[in-house]
Amino acid sequence: MEIAFLIEKVAIVVILFVVTLTIAAYSTLAERKVAAFLQDRVGPDRAGPFGVFQPLADGGKMFFKEETTPNGANKWLFIAGPSLALLTSFLGSAVIPWGQSINFFGRIVPLQVTDINVGILYIFGVVSLGVYGIMIGGWASNNKYSLMGAIRGASQNISYEIAMGLSIIALLLCTNSLSFKVIAEQQHGINWNFWYQPLGFLIFLVCAFAETNRVPFDLPECETELIGGYNTEYSGFKMGAYMFAEYINMFVSSAVMATLYFGGYNYPGMDFVNLHLGPTWGPLVGVAVLLGKILAFIFFFMWVRWTVPRFRYDQLMNLGWKILIPLAIANIVVTACVITFFDKF
Amino acid sequence: MILFYLVSLLTITFSLLVIFTKNPIYSVLYLIATFFTFTIHYVLLNAQFLAVVNFIVYMGAIMVLFLFVLMLMNLNKETEPMKSNLIKIIAVIAGGSLLVTLVGSFKQLSTLGISTVDKPEIGLVENLGKVLFSDFLLPFEVSSILLLSAMVGAVLLAKKDKSENG
Amino acid sequence: MESLSGRKKVLEQKPMNFWERIYLPAIFKGMGITFMHMFKKKETTYYPEQEREFSENWRGMHSLKRDENGKERCTACGLCALSCPAEAITMTSAERQKGEEHLYREEKYAAVYEINMLRCIFCGLCEEACPKEAIYLDGPIVPSEFLRKDFIYGKDKLVELSITDLAAQKGVLA
């Protein structure tokens, strides 16, 4: 039993790792394709049909590029920065339930790496740790632009974590649980949390953009002001690690949003499908639905990137501290009042 | 149990490194590592909520600000003020008396404790919340007022004096 | 400040109303616009396979023309070099010998004619200066090279192919 359990967990971890890497790699292609389509172009289409081998070509290019370390850079921390960024981005996907428990040759396998009962807080911890990769890398580069980017990244992440946490608290009032598994199970069918917490979702969405350093909040790496921000001095695969970390962050935050607010693997009519496809294929459809939601969110991230211009730094801070935090607190108060008076949820 | 000793060893090593490294940035990084081992300790003690909160608040927010300030100050060896022998002696005396106090208090404590570990669910959010909002409501609210006053004070300090700068 | 021309218009900026201030409607409108662009016709030309048409007044690579009998028109008068603001053109003249009448139209011709394509700004002044209608900037884009010396184009690259050359080329192809 122990061995089987171990094999099961290792298998889930490996599959998750591979899927995450693949999606991150293809996100780079998708980013360019989406950018192209939104600008009436076709995008990269030379490497294979429709450019499907473009990520491989990019990866190969990145491997063979010269790795430079600037003079006066802190050698050890210069490597630690991108490694930490990549590590923390991977950690988040451990607590996300990818589907209902699946019947795999007579064995009930939960499609989740681990169900810790403070799953949401764990995600927060990992996200808050993510800023170290940027900070350490930016400082170790011994470059003023990198340092500026690192400092911007740190203050931006800290500011938006607060609003993010407050928006989640309103959600927790509805769900009564911190465990992702329980939250996902509660949203059976179309009973998604989004219908109860639209404002909370909006705040969470904006904060997710800020936490993943995506446009319109990409101030830590804005090219026009800071050259490349914290990754100005990076080249070759260390640069690739930062880029990958960004795309994996995007993937994980999409998964979190899909699970918390859009029902995760739940979809209308899932009972009917499960009844007809059996306990093995039914949950797999759920997994596909979750992946579809995640891809839709990733597309949304890119769509916003090519629509909304970058915020100025004071606008960013005003939005975070003077608008989102009061809104989130108001959302908590309203939710708490509704729950207390109507005892609805 | 082996895990406990391993983690404790790491904790002590990292905390010693915090003190002995010359570069303040390294000190902060080792401090972060120390906090991380604390988190593992909390998990081993089955206090998951405390572990995660320690993780988020200390590692994710407070240490980031520490690092932030240190990076901006750009501390080099030349700018570090010389410490006189008198200060060193005073520091040794103060540290020694703190050690004596701690050892004394731990001796007193050793007869108590270990009675609450029977309940493995004690550290979970639900139980913690119930205890906080029933038995310890007054201290909880008082501490929140303390935090609020600290926040108001910080805002007051950060605000410019209008009479001077017009 | 008072406007001297009297044509200054002061733009009136109204304070934004509530919906404008929360920005969200504007953002959604913008996103709608970008989304509609997904389905528009793509403007891409697949370059090596497809080439975009040059405009009427396009100025590209130079070519030295021949007259209707296949003789070189250039007489090495040097007006093009004189008019060139970038000093990209140099030439050496030579006298036409007996038996070369079918090659050069006038008694004097350019033995060496070089244009430095890195200096050239494709202004077309040489074309305008030429009294013999010998030089035209009617070629394609100057291709890229790896070495600077390869950008100095001699007569081998500049002079239009003669009828005999064209015939020879066709013979090779056939």
Helix and strand sequence of chain C: HHEHEEHEEHH
Q: How large is the radius of gyration of chain A?
A: 21 Å
Pairing-aware structural class of the strands and helices of chain A? mainly alpha
Helix count of chain A?
11
Which strand order spans the largest sheet of chain C, edge to edge or round the barrel?
Answer: 2-3-5
Q: Termini separation of chain A (Å)?
A: 39 Å
The amount of beta strand of chain A, in percent, is under 5%
Number of strands of chain A: 2
Average pLDDT score of chain C: 84
Distance between the termini of chain C: 78 Å
- Tally of helical segments of chain C: 6
Please state how the strands of the largest beta sheet of chain A are arranged side by side: 1-2
- Predict the CATH topology of the domain at 63-173 in chain C: Alpha-Beta Plaits
Shape of chain C: elongated
Number of domains of chain A: 1
Task: Give the largest interface.
Answer: A-B, 25 and 20 residues
The quaternary state of the protein chains shown equals heterotrimer
As a percent range, the share of helical residues of chain A equals 55-70%
Q: How would you describe the shape of chain A?
A: globular
How would you characterize the overall build of this protein?
The complex is a heterotrimer of chains A (345), B (166) and C (174). Chain A has 345 residues and is mainly α. Chain A is 68% helix and 2% strand. Chain B has a domain of 78 residues: Four Helix Bundle (Hemerythrin (Met), subunit A) (Up-down Bundle). Chain B has 7 helices and no strands. Chain C has 174 residues and is α+β, with helices and mostly antiparallel strands. Chain C has a domain of 111 residues: Alpha-Beta Plaits (2-Layer Sandwich), CATH 3.30.70.3270. Chain C is 25% helix and 13% strand. In chain C, the strands form 2 sheets. A 3-stranded antiparallel sheet of chain C has the order 2-3-5. In chain C, strands 1-4 form a two-stranded antiparallel ribbon. Chains in contact: A-B, A-C. At the A-B interface, helix 4 and helix 5 of A face helix 2 and helix 3 of B.
